[in-house]
TrEMBL record:
<keyword id="KW-0812">Transmembrane</keyword>
<dbReference type="Pfam" id="PF00535">
    <property type="entry name" value="Glycos_transf_2"/>
</dbReference>
<feature type="transmembrane region" description="Helical">
    <location>
        <begin position="242"/>
        <end position="262"/>
    </location>
</feature>
<protein>
    <submittedName>
        <fullName>Glycosyltransferase family 2 protein</fullName>
        <ecNumber>2.4.-.-</ecNumber>
    </submittedName>
</protein>
<dbReference type="InterPro" id="IPR001173">
    <property type="entry name" value="Glyco_trans_2-like"/>
</dbReference>
<keyword id="KW-0328">Glycosyltransferase</keyword>
<feature type="domain" description="Glycosyltransferase 2-like">
    <location>
        <begin position="10"/>
        <end position="149"/>
    </location>
</feature>
<feature type="transmembrane region" description="Helical">
    <location>
        <begin position="274"/>
        <end position="298"/>
    </location>
</feature>
<dbReference type="InterPro" id="IPR050256">
    <property type="entry name" value="Glycosyltransferase_2"/>
</dbReference>
<keyword id="KW-0808">Transferase</keyword>
<keyword id="KW-1133">Transmembrane helix</keyword>
<dbReference type="InterPro" id="IPR029044">
    <property type="entry name" value="Nucleotide-diphossugar_trans"/>
</dbReference>
<keyword id="KW-0472">Membrane</keyword>
<dbReference type="GO" id="GO:0016757">
    <property type="term" value="F:glycosyltransferase activity"/>
</dbReference>
Amino acid sequence: MKLVSQPRLTIVVPCYNEEPVLQASAQVLNGILQKLVTTNQVRSDSKILFVDDGSQDTTWDLITQLGHQDAVFTGLKFSRNYGQESALIAGMEVANHYSDLIITIDADLQDDPHIIPDMVAQSQQGIDVVYGVRNDRASDSWFKRTSAEGFYWFMKKLGVELVPNHSDFRLLTSRVVTALMTCKETNPFIRGIIPQLGFPSARLYYKRQPRQAGESKYPLHKMIQFALNGILSFSIAPIRMVLYFGLLVCGGALAMLIWILIQHAHGDVVTGWSSIMLSVWFLGGFQLIAISIIGEYVGRTFTEVKHRPRFIIQTDTYSKTFKSTEPTKFRLTHQTVTK
């Protein structure tokens, strides 16, 4: 798929309490976008779209001020906090009506935005998905680095295709976003869904920068929740693991029964409260774990079948910036012109 005219680019930036970094990030992204415009790589009406995920500080006020200063800055405001995945989906869904290329990047700009021109250049060569990938994790703590490596290893064993050391910094063409929007999960795991779509992809490596201000929006409990969401969204392997472990426990119990019968036959019987309680606590704990894992899947099914909206947009200053009610996109070609 090659571009036959200038594409319209939208940079989608999810925001949650980003007051300390928003002004600086906006200027950096705008500078990069204007260079793309002046070099005729993207259209002059390309936009930066901030998605306010129910921030409790002045994030939305800053987004509004930026929009008054320069029409390149636009925003979506959620009615409440829905989470980063929902913010990304909302931004891409709204932008896809008017954009040919969409880049998503976190507001703290720890992911290097200066490779954005290289991403756009890759799309000009027919690449539909360009992943921004960290070239190392030297700046992470030992725990974070080890847990991340363990997560990617475990997901690979489950048969889930992920791009290691890739977060949510990526370029997608319009047809990829259109395909992504057909996935209607209430709790989508975007990093796992996009590789499964199967479009041509490439990777660009960069060095991750330290956060300039504010604090991380992914403390330990959110990292654990994110990892569980990825595992439970793509595999029933945990349930099968519980089944196999249960069979192993039953086999051990049977072996113990045979051993007890042999001991009785020899008259060598030692009654012990500790051994009984150990067995009770072990099996009881295993049953609770098994019920919890199954309950997670049942709960997710319960959430999905209700078909409640993944997010509610309270304010949209992006769509109104385009005068025409009919979205205008450049044409794509893949041998013959297709869309």
